[in-house]
Specification:
signal; single chain; 28 helices; MFS_trans_sf; 569 residues; Growth Hormone, Chain: A
Length: 569
């Protein structure tokens, strides 16, 4: 029981780390002050935002560090990078030191890299301590990363609402303090042999994850309501204390582990997990590998006995790697280089040769990445529309709905038996709000339209960010997910640069007033064509995701059909 309690302590510590290390999401809160201090154009400001996102390019370094250093050391290296990156920027913005522009760029790059290191630590902690419930542990903890901007907004309002530079100081110090708080659970991780991998353990843990998800929803609603309130410092401190209470409250779970028997008999049995359509967890991801191995060993027999077996639609085999269909009409598009089955391992070289990967890449590039760039530009967007006082509200809105989007990404796992739909189909549905939001922004410059669009974009991008790891694992293999997903997210710095440059060029071209040496644009024209272009790109991303769904639907259907047969036996 002690080992079981410790793993939940680790999960709570991981939630804390994720909640306070998404420091790139509050860039809009201080970007205007940074632009004014450095007397730079919107294009140069975009380069700083891109540098924050470019840290993901060096995310591989955290994996390398973990092969040679303990987790506790890696997390403090990440803290040190953030402390140095944000701390020196804060000193410069307070005029305590003087830094040239290129050093701001390098410090932003270092800060972005620290976020990747924190994420890797959290990823490893979830995998190591929840081998059976890994999908639920990952989706829950990653969701809290979307709350970072709302938490930092509430913290800043409780100290000094008028200081934009305060965000940089908080970005530097809070992750370090959080790492110190998480250190004890990390050092006291249970030994691997004490962690049960049985299906029964997964079912026992499922209700705890359900409770944690409900608690997460309440936390998100609380922050949405109070994080950006215009209250005084004293009231904001009370609100911030409430947020901390919600984050600390999961600590009660380790104590309840000792009452597991009563909890299981009184509550868990009422869900009737095995016989209902209410599924909380994939029962051991290793079962997927067992199924795939059995598929490969019996491919010919199965395809001869079932026209819609586990391979292509026509039952043909092509070296266990490819399945091609020969229907009519658009089959050349839908059938070329089609996936034979889910979970088949792909090397990096094989991935970049797959049509499905590039459809997936475009969908992410034209969906989630646009949402991230939009959040980086929220400060200037609000300022150009005369809504500077609403920047914190908009950042909180984006952060909170990004959090809800991340939580929603787990819904397919919860309703799998009652309503099964390919995860790539859910990805397409998750992309749909983005073009709707940019259409609304293009046709209206009202504050209400801006808030609704920000919420929709946050919801959509949060869903994509959280769902992407599972999609990558299913399409290109769980053992290769770390490498393949890092290839996928190279689109983030590329998109941050290109989309940001587009927005900055249009902004600077329409700037007509000057404050010092800084160009300032006011009015709808500052971002109108940006919204039109971004909206068009998001439509391309939606089309790409729909095509990906149509190409992979057969593989998901075959896998689910086979899984259902196994569960009946």
């Amino acid at each position: 029981m002690t080992g079981q309690s410790r793993k939940w302590m680790v999960l709570v510590a991981t939630i804390w780390i994720q909640a306070f290390t998404g420091t790139n999401f509050d860039f809009s809160d201080y970007s205007s002050s940074l632009k004014s201090l450095l007397n730079i154009s919107q294009i140069k400001l975009n380069y700083l935002a891109t540098a924050n996102d470019m840290g993901k390019v060096f995310g591989w370094s955290s994996g390398l560090a973990l092969t040679r250093l303990p987790l506790s050391v890696v997390i403090f290296i990440a803290s040190a990078m953030g402390l140095l990156g944000y701390g020196l920027q804060w000193l410069a913005i307070k005029n305590l030191i003087s830094l040239p522009y290129y050093l701001f760029f390098l410090l932003s790059l270092l800060s972005g890299c620290s976020i990747c290191w924190f994420n890797t630590v959290c990823f490893v902690l979830c995998i190591r301590n929840f081998p059976v419930n890994r999908p639920l542990a990952l989706s829950l903890t990653v969701s809290f990363n979307g709350l970072s901007a709302a938490l930092y907004t509430l913290a800043a309002n409780s100290i000094d609402p008028s200081s934009d530079s305060l965000y940089l100081l908080l970005n530097a110090l809070v992750p370090l303090l959080t790492s110190l708080a998480a250190l004890i659970p990390i050092l006291l991780q249970p030994p691997l042999d004490s962690l049960s991998r049985s299906a029964d353990a997964a079912r026992r843990n499922s209700v705890i994850f359900l409770v944690l998800n409900f608690l997460a929803i309440f936390t998100g609603i609380y922050l949405l309501l109070f994080a950006s309130s215009t209250s005084d410092e004293a009231t904001s401190r009370i609100y911030f204390g409430g947020a901390i209470f919600f984050l600390v409250s999961p600590l009660c779970i380790p104590g309840t582990i000792y009452a597991r028997g009563w909890f299981h008999n009184a509550i868990h049995s009422s869900f009737q997990v095995e016989g209902s359509g209410f599924i909380l967890v994939h029962v051991d991801d290793l079962e997927l590998h067992k199924e795939l191995l059995s598929r490969q060993n019996s491919t010919l027999n199965l395809s001869n006995g079932d026209d819609h077996g586990l391979l292509g639609e026509n039952g043909s085999v092509h070296g266990g790697q490819r399945a091609k269909t020969s229907d009519v009409g658009c089959d050349k598009v839908l059938g070329q280089d089609q996936l034979a089955m889910l979970g088949e391992e792909h090397t990096a070289a094989e991935v970049v040769q797959r049509v499905d990967f590039w459809l997936y890449y475009i969908a992410y590039f034209c969906g989630g990445t646009i949402g991230l760039v939009y959040s980086n530009n929220l400060g200037q967007i609000a300022q150009s529309l005369g809504l500077s006082s609403s920047i914190s509200t908009l950042v909180t809105l984006y952060s909170s709905f990004s959090f809800f989007g991340r939580l929603l990404s787990a819904v397919p796992d919860y309703i799998r038996n009652k309503f099964y739909f390919a995860r790539t189909g859910w990805l397409a549905i998750g992309l749909f709000p983005t073009p709707v939001a940019f259409t609304l922004l293009a046709v209206s410059d009202s504050e209400a339209a801006l808030k609704v669009s920000t919420a929709l974009i946050g919801l959509s991008s949060g869903f994509i960010f959280a769902a992407a790891v599972a999609v990558t694992s299913e399409l290109f293999g769980p053992n290769s997910v770390s490498v393949n997903h890092n290839i996928l997210i190279t689109n983030i710095p590329i998109g941050s640069l290109l989309y940001g440059l587009l927005a900055a060029a249009i902004y600077d071209a329409n700037a007509y007033s000057v404050t010092g040496d800084t160009l300032v644009c006011m009015g709808r024209k500052c971002y109108f064509w940006t919204f039109v272009w971004w909206g068009g790109m998001s439509v391309l991303g939606l089309a790409s995701s729909v095509l990906l769904f149509l190409r992979t639907k057969h593989a998901y259907d075959h896998f689910e059909r086979h899984r259902s047969r196994i569960s009946v036996q």
